């Protein structure tokens, strides 16, 4: 029997990769909860920061872009940079893409992946089934990578949770639960600022606590972008253009530079359209650092060092750490011990070669875990346009 390729993940990258492999005639088994990160781990009512053209899940055939979904669903076409994409529309687009191109998706979890004695990989599913795959594509996205800084985590020994004084933003889908309450949101990225605006609109009294002066900032609207710089899915700038269209050489840069760029390029900045929903509605404390959080009586109090060097206390009913995601192979607990020890890593992320293959032949990574090798583009849906065809081509040549 021909062994299939296993694709672990049914978010934008997993679905896109599976569609490309199938188009090459490669048998696949695809696992995961479709679009779950978007459905359960982002706030309801969110608008995508990415523009419609930068929100396409790449497919090998034409007719599967966001605008094609809009036409098929009979809803208003989302085309220009000023058309904002509601998260509900994007989730429906992902489901539509899955139904059309990956209908055989299996909604089960992969519990373990190990090397198989006779070659390939042995996978165990939470249905109890064991099977062998000739290659494995890991497209598990944000799963398991939520990051809470130590000073906030210390206040919640059992881990962040919506029912404890501190949660991570990925645990806050329904912000209306904070209506009438005092809420602190820690962070300065789009996720922090949009979470704060949505919670304020739902009736919470919200304060954003961000580290550093001028850290809470918003991008320029499309009509104010500099005209003489090249266009990219993220705005007009030479750096963004190079990282968007030429990520090939990225993995050859020194590790320090790669990790710096992944963190800094397209780093914390609110979307242009969020400014008017935020300013005047959300309080902002720009601080030098958060010293600690006390939550002995169940209500959190942040002790911060101000930019002027003083100590200040900030109290609330709840703190949301909108402090992002950190790739860490250790969090991919489904990867067997032997595989993990054989994988070359760079600061917790797998080191990938041409075609997104790791140091273990047949084991591929795409999406966020590929960002330290292929650049910040991999953190966004539009990175699938670069990644999926290349990964599928490499896999077909090596294992087809
Ligand atoms: C608040 C927020 C807003 C964002 N906004 C944007 C935006 O506007 N535009 C943009 O381009 N990007 C945005 N992003 C980034 C975006 O989330 C990622 O680019 C995208 O989701 C990555 O897709 P993915 O397919 O790699 O992973 P995910 O979408 O995270 O999907 C992971 C998949 O893996 C599956 N999975 C995990 N573990 C297992 C397992 N053991 N077995 C089986 N399946 C498993 C899950 O079920 C799921 O199907 C945003 C992120 C956040 C947090």
UniProtKB/TrEMBL annotation:
Alphabetically ordered keywords of this record: Oxidoreductase
Keyword Repressor: no
InterPro entries the UniProt entry points to: Auxin_biosynth/cation_transpt, FAD/NAD-bd_sf, FAD/NAD-binding_dom
Classification via Pfam families: Pyr_redox_2 (PF07992)
Domain of life: Bacteria
Domain FAD/NAD(P)-binding: 5-212
The UniProt record lists the keyword Oxidoreductase: yes
Record's protein name: NAD(P)-binding domain-containing protein
Organism: Streptomyces spinosisporus
Source lineage: Bacteria, Bacillati, Actinomycetota, Actinomycetes, Kitasatosporales
């Amino acid at each position: 029997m021909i062994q299939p390729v296993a694709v672990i993940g049914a978010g934008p990258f997993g679905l896109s990769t599976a569609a490309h492999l199938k188009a090459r005639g490669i048998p696949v088994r695809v696992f995961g909860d479709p679009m779950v990160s978007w459905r359960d781990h982002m706030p309801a009512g969110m608008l995508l920061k990415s523009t419609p053209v930068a929100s396409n899940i790449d497919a090998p055939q034409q007719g599967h872009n966001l605008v094609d979904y809009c036409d098929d669903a009979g809803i208003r076409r989302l085309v220009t940079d000023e058309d904002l994409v509601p998260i509900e529309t994007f989730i429906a687009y992902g489901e539509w893409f899955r139904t059309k191109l990956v209908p055989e998706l299996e909604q089960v979890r992969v519990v373990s992946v190990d090397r198989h004695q006779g070659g390939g990989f042995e996978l165990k599913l939470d249905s109890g089934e064991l099977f062998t795959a000739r290659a494995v594509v890991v497209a598990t996205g944000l799963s398991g990578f939520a990051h809470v800084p130590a000073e906030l985590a210390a206040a919640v020994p059992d881990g962040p949770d919506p029912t404890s004084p501190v949660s991570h933003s990925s645990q806050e889908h329904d912000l209306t639960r904070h209506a009438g309450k005092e809420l602190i949101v820690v962070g300065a990225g789009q996720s922090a600022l949009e979470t704060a605006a949505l919670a304020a609109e739902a009736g919470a009294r919200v304060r954003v606590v961000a580290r550093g002066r001028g850290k809470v900032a918003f991008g320029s609207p499309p009509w104010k972008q500099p005209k003489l710089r090249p266009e990219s899915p993220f705005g007009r700038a030479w750096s963004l253009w190079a990282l968007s269209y030429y990520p090939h050489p990225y993995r050859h840069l020194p590790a320090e530079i790669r990790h710096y760029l992944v963190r800094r390029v397209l780093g914390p900045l609110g979307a242009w359209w969020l400014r008017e929903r935020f300013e005047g509605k959300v309080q902002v404390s720009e601080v030098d650092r958060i010293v600690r959080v006390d939550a002995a009586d169940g209500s959190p109090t942040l002790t911060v060092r101000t930019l002027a060097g003083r100590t200040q206390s900030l109290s609330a009913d709840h703190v949301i750490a909108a402090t992002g995601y950190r790739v860490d192979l250790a969090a991919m607990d489904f990867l067997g011990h032997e595989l993990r020890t054989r994988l070359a890593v760079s600061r917790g992320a797998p080191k990938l070669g041409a075609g997104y293959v790791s140091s273990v032949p047949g084991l591929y990574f795409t999406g966020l875990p590929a960002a330290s090798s292929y650049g910040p583009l991999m953190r966004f849906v539009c990175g699938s346009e670069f990644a999926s065809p290349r990964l599928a081509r490499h896999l077909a040549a090596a294992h087809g």
